[in-house]
Amino acid sequence: MRKALFPLALVAALCVVFAACSDGGSSSTPKASSYENIGAGLTGPAGASATVVATGLKNVSGLAQDSQGRLWAVTAAFNDIGTDALYVIPAPGQDAVKVAGDLHTPMGLLWTSDRLYVSSAEGVIAFDGFDGARFAKQQTIATFSGAGIMGGLALGNDGRIRVGISAACDNCVPDSKWAASVVSFLPDGSEARVEASGIRAPVGLAYVPGTNDLLVTMNQRDDLGDATPGDYLALVLSGQTWGFPSCYGQGGSDCAGVPPPIAEMDKHAAVSGIAVLTVAGKTSAFAAEWATGKLVRVELISSNGSYSGTIEQPITGIQGPVGVTASGGSSLLVGDWVTGTVYKITLPAT
Fold it and tell me: What secondary structure letter does DSSP report for 241?
């Protein structure tokens, strides 16, 4: 991803490619010997399976399915060179069809009824009236002046749409009230408000099914050397502040009142998309680590109005996962930003 999107990503990518970084991560995942080939060139836990559902979507950054089961994807190149676009894949294995171009760093996709929302560097765009080839109407319904890149989108039970908006810096107090926050607005773009602040880069958003619990993946600061924390998976509640830039998980007065994360992932992971599934009676969050090439699982254990969990069972073999979405039952769709491949991963039912 481009540096403006994940300011830590360039360093992280060099670590992965050249195996030159030694600060490690917060890995609590099983050893590689416990993995097996699950198909499509991926490895994962016993009983999982993987297939390829789409190719040719290099720089794929967000995924969604509509009510007819069609797969939608957006792409975001490292630099904004006019190639970012929206695509539809009518059925697994079919070619991706470009539906809209001239987008700028689109990251989030959300279908509600017959309307598709796309979050981008220029604002939230609403697409209406798809006739099988094109949309009849496209309009920017919400903009957030002075903020950084917008991440994922999620629809709450209250009818409001949430979006994550990054700070345009690694370590600063943002000038815009919208930056480094989770923001909500009505489906027509009106009545925008900050729900939670002080989050350097809230990238992936997903609700725990059947609840009002919003889970968010958070990229951390990247200027801290040995004190660099792992990226976060967190439950985000309205009214919270997460302390950016002074608090980065070190404790003390700078972090007074800042809630703990559900789980701490790898350092410099550029954690991105997230989906939540209930499989075999266990509800888990699945989060993409772009820089490590892992899709990690965090089983959610409810406790005192929050959750705890440990990172386990990473799916490996995806070079740069970013977009993640649930696909019904026990399946996920995961997009590889590097290769343009979209995988369907099905978890074991027991």
Answer: B
User: Could you tell me which residues are beta bridge partners of residue 196?
Assistant: 182
Contact (Cβ atoms closer than 8 angstroms) between residue 233 and residue 298: yes
Q: What is the pLDDT of residue 30?
A: 45
Distance CA 72, CA 63 (A): 6
This prediction has a pTM of 0.91
CA distance 270 to 251: 22
Task: Look up residue 253 and give its DSSP letter.
Answer: G
Q: What is the CA radius of gyration of the chain?
A: 19
Mean pLDDT computed over 341-345: 98
- Size of the chain in residues: 350
- Is residue 242 within 8 Å of residue 199, measured between CB atoms? yes
On whether the CB atoms of residues 218 and 202 are closer than 8 A, the answer is: yes
Residues 201-221, mean pLDDT to the nearest whole number: 96
pLDDT value of position 155 = 98
Span 180-205, average pLDDT: 97
